[in-house]
Amino acid sequence: MSKANPCHGNCPIARVTALLGDGWSLMIIREAFLGSGKFNEFEKRLGIARNILTNRLRKLVEAGLLQRKASETDRRVVEYRLTRSGRALFPVLIALSQWSEQHLSDCSHSVRYVERATGEEIQRIKVLSADGRELDAGELAMLPGPDADPALKARLVAAMEQAGHEAAHAAS
Amino acid sequence: MSKANPCHGNCPIARVTALLGDGWSLMIIREAFLGSGKFNEFEKRLGIARNILTNRLRKLVEAGLLQRKASETDRRVVEYRLTRSGRALFPVLIALSQWSEQHLSDCSHSVRYVERATGEEIQRIKVLSADGRELDAGELAMLPGPDADPALKARLVAAMEQAGHEAAHAAS
DNA sequence: GGATTGGGTTGCAAAATGCAACTAATCGGC
DNA sequence: GCCGATTAGTTGCATTTTGCAACCCAATCC
């Protein structure tokens, strides 16, 4: 990916894409949620090349999503476990998964997410207003926050203006 | 990425990673949400190479996330707009964005998501049980659905068993 | 009709990825 | 304490993907 493209400043999507936007990082996080922790487990369960796995684990550790710790019982093995940051990706993974099931062929009804205690299906992930109504993209505004850099700020202002012109479009 | 690794069958995360797991696809979708539609707009706002952009737009159109249509008013320009599937990625983008803001340095307070009508901040995206309690990863079970292929089924069963052994781990 | 614009394609260099072979430390058996 | 096996890497090399710049062609503007 390029060094200096327009909005790559502190745009949150750009930043998360830089970190997780490759063919493996998200899979590794998913594996970690499924209980993998050792180098070998990731390798075998994902079928990832070992040098790439090394590289990604290091990157994820540096980013603070995984913690690297030598095992107490066997000093050959290294345990990678999700940190608080890593576990906070939980809603992202579920949202992605639900989207896949609904919109990609071959993914429908391959996994059921249920609450362990009750066995009931969880809700579909939604964007909610402060008072709990479900919002869609058209009802949302993205404003530059206090720490937005100039490029991001300009981009968001431009988007706001564009949104004004469109007003009502609904068809797909 | 490899051709045939263990769980790449119909695992939803694997499938969405295959589609959006590169440095640009998600950025393109984000741009589309921000109002971009023309080839040039994507190119300039993202700083993406034109051959790569061509490739990604085609892929996203094939996957049904974007719709490609020649403009009515100027037959040189092509409009790419989000389909229903594409717009359904909205919660995913918001979840990713919120995660970035909370867990990546330089992303904090760069964007504020507010409801257009009221100006109020939206809620944090959560995983909710059927009756509306917030769940975390430990409270969730992933069961193979009716269409899970054998590899995925085996993987999920293994994860369930592993989860049994762990029971209570909370530290990070 | 000539220059410009929009949306590409093509060729080539650079970077990322995949694969297999090799290491270094640790373990378990004896 | 030695020996083979296991774990987590590393290294070298072939293949694939990216990025960049130049080129192309139809539609549009003047």
Task: Give a written overview of the molecule.
The structure is a homodimer of 172-residue chains. With 172 residues, chain A is an alpha+beta fold. Chain A has three domains: 12-87, Winged helix-like DNA-binding domain superfamily/Winged helix DNA-binding domain (Arc Repressor Mutant, subunit A, Orthogonal Bundle), CATH 1.10.10; 89-125, no CATH class; 138-166. Helix content of chain A is 43%, strand content 12%. The first copy, chain A, contains seven helices and four strands; from the N terminus they run ααααββααββα. The longest helix of chain A is centred in the C-terminal third of the chain and has 17 residues, at 150-166. Mean pLDDT of chain A is 90; it is low at 2-6 and 168-172. Chains A and B meet through α1, α2, α3, α5 and α6 of A and α1, α2, α3, α5 and α6 of B. Chain A binds a DNA duplex (30 and 30 nucleotides) through residues 1-2, 22-23, 38-40, 43, 48-55, 74-78.
Number of strands of chain A: 4
The CATH class of the largest domain in chain A turns out to be Mainly Alpha
Uncertain segments of chain A are 2-6, 168-172
Level-2 CATH architecture of the largest domain in chain A = Orthogonal Bundle
The radius of gyration over CA of chain A amounts to 20 Å
The name CATH uses for the topology of the largest domain in chain A is Arc Repressor Mutant, subunit A
Keywords (chains A, B): DNA-binding, Transcription, Transcription regulation
Domain HTH hxlR-type (chains A, B): 11-108
Protein name (chains A, B): Transcriptional regulator
GO molecular function, one term (chains A, B): DNA-binding transcription factor activity
